[in-house]
Amino acid sequence: MCARAPFTLFPGPVTVILHRFRCRMDVSLFVQGIIIGLTLAVPVGPLALICIQRTVTEGRLHGIFSGIGVATADSFYAAVTFLGLTFISGLIIAQQYLFRFLAGVILILLGIRVFLSIPSAISAKTEHETYLKDYLSMVALAIANPLTLVFFLVILPGYDVVIHGVSFLSAAEFVAGVFFGSTVWWIVLCGSIGSVRSRLSRENLGLINRVSGLLISCFGAGVLILLVMTMGLLG
Q: Which of 37, 47, 100, 212 lies 20 to 30 A from 201 at CA?
């Protein structure tokens, strides 16, 4: 929300123009955050596959809450980069090999679990604790991917406000945009997929689990292979 123009007894045209320009800049910052949030969320990767698989087998809300977990992690990295929190970003980058290793192993194990899972009949069973687990599990998995931080470190220096310093208000506007853009995408994606969930047979659900589990495990193996190559352990 844009702050009001400074109070003057006789506001001149210059004051009005500057105030309108400031409003446009605030809105632009939020919109830029939305665009970056969508840029991160739209590509289909292992996290998207997990959200889709949960939507199909458990229900749209499970997928949406999982997606919001990813959006939360993206927003965290956006805040760290935008505010220039070099201590946190430096710590994450310094331990990136550990994070990437854990992410790869978790993806492989999660993929195997999904592959072997036996889908139950479509039902209306939902528990708030389960939604919370969906959310927290995706926050942890997305946070374990330091490449998102690298993405922000590469993208955000292009914004003049980052170069010359920022306020918490500016950071909040940008981070809110990232979270909003990412969350909207997950709601649209999981909501759309969830609308056809009731038409799927148990055999179809089993096939989706096997394909999703295989792809998720492949992504995890790819993460580990790239990690080994990055560390120069492959001759």
A: 47
Task: Work out the number of other CB atoms within 10 angstroms of the CB of residue 129.
Answer: 7
3-state secondary structure of 212: helix
- pTM across the whole model: 0.72
CA distance 152 to 150: 5
Instruction: Report pLDDT digits (tens) over 114-171.
Output: 888 766 554 444 444 589 999 999 999 898 887 787 777 776 665 544 444 556 787 8
Rounded to the nearest angstrom, the gap between the alpha carbon of residue 155 and the centroid of all alpha carbons in its chain is: 16
What residues contact 171, with CB distance under 8 A and at least 6 apart? 79, 82, 83
Cβ–Cβ under 8 Å, residues 152 and 81 = yes
Q: What is the pLDDT of residues 53-80, one digit of tens each?
A: 899 888 889 999 999 999 999 999 888 8
Q: Give the span between the Cα atoms of 78 and 84, in whole angstroms.
A: 10
95, two tokens: 């331990």
Alpha-carbon gap, residue 138 to 14, rounded angstroms: 49
Residue that the structure tokens 């749209």 belong to: 60
d(CA 45, CA 186): 13
Q: Which of 30, 21, 32, 38 is nearest to 1 (CA)?
A: 30
Task: Classify residue 196 by burial, with Cβ atoms within 10 Å: 0-12, 13-18, 19+.
Answer: exposed
